[in-house]
Amino acid sequence: MAKMMQRIAVFGGNGYLASLIKNKNNKNKYTFTFFSRKKNDKNFINFSLDKKNFHFLKNYNYIIHLAGPNQNQLKKNKKLIYQKNRITAKICDLCLANNIKLIYLSSMQVYKDYGIEDILINSRVNINNLYSKSHYDSEKIILSKFLDHEKKFIILRMGNVFGLNKSYCVRDINENLIHTLCFNALNKKNIIINNGSIQRTFIPSQIFIKIINLIIKKNLFNNSIENISYKNFNLREIAYIIKKRLKLLFKINTQIKIESFKHQKTFKVYSNKHFKFNYNNKKIYLEVDHILKCIKKNNQNNVY
């Protein structure tokens, strides 16, 4: 008997991470449905409705929870954090009612010393930042809702995912650090960074997709919180990678201006054995190359 195809509901279906799943995942293995709170969307979902209105979810095996405001939206309206809390609670209830397993995408930003000190799961969290608090609140809701239920969820504290699709939108540039630097390098011929010492952990989009597939394939739903990292860079290093790739691809020279820089010890992110990856600089270069090619092609098509 043929194995039934796994069905996955993605909430936050119009966001950046959802776009990566749409374009890069293995559609032969899984069936994805991308739900959105936009009323004109094909798969519009209203989380304020009663639980009985979500009977269609009984046919799904997994939910990927990507819904929630970004940092800029929270700066404009801090009440969005409470709306996200309600959505997270509803998603947990729907998982329990329909025997669905949950993948929640949190952020490395929850850590107070992200980019400064080594990061472990029990490192200090930053509840003073609204974006960090929104993710941390959702984590606490999930932990509470599934307290008496085994092997139901996994929480991923993700680093900075990067990588563009050909059909990207302006938002995917403006809300992503590497994308913005690539855009400026190609269109303005310069990269300006205030503090080149700032460190972040970066995750190529192909690694992000690999992680989602790995969790489902190996059933890594251990009611745990996991750190997800690939390679740590400071912003100065990122700027020079982009400069080098742009020169190799298009013979374009880019000016780099770093306002301040101080050498610092590279911080470490400690991860579960399932989420440790052997670093390959080719993966970083190929992803940056693809970003630059997508931006250049869209420029030629007068997208901007």
Shape, principal axes of CA atoms: globular
Range of strand content: 15-25%
Average pLDDT metric: 92
Q: What is Rg?
A: 20 Å
Low-confidence stretches: none
- Helical content class: 25-40%
Distance between the termini: 51 Å
How does the major sheet shape up? Answer: 6 strands, parallel
SSE-based structural type: alpha/beta
What string gives the helices and strands in order?
A: EHEEHHEHEEHHEEHEEHEH
Structure overview:
There is one protein chain. By secondary structure, the protein is an alpha/beta fold. Helix content is 38%, strand content 19%. It contains nine helices and eleven strands. The chain has helices spanning 16-24, 71-76, 80-98, 130-145, 170-174, 177-187, 205-218, 235-250, 281-300, and strands at 6-11, 30-35, 62-65, 101-107, 153-158, 160-162, 190-195, 199-204, 224-228, 231-234, 255-260. Strands 2-1-3-4-5-9 form a six-stranded parallel β-sheet, covered by helices on one side. It has a three-stranded mixed β-sheet with strand order 6-8-10. It has a two-stranded parallel sheet with strand order 7-11. Helix 4 links the parallel strand 4 (101-107) and strand 5. The chain is globular, with a radius of gyration of 20 Å.
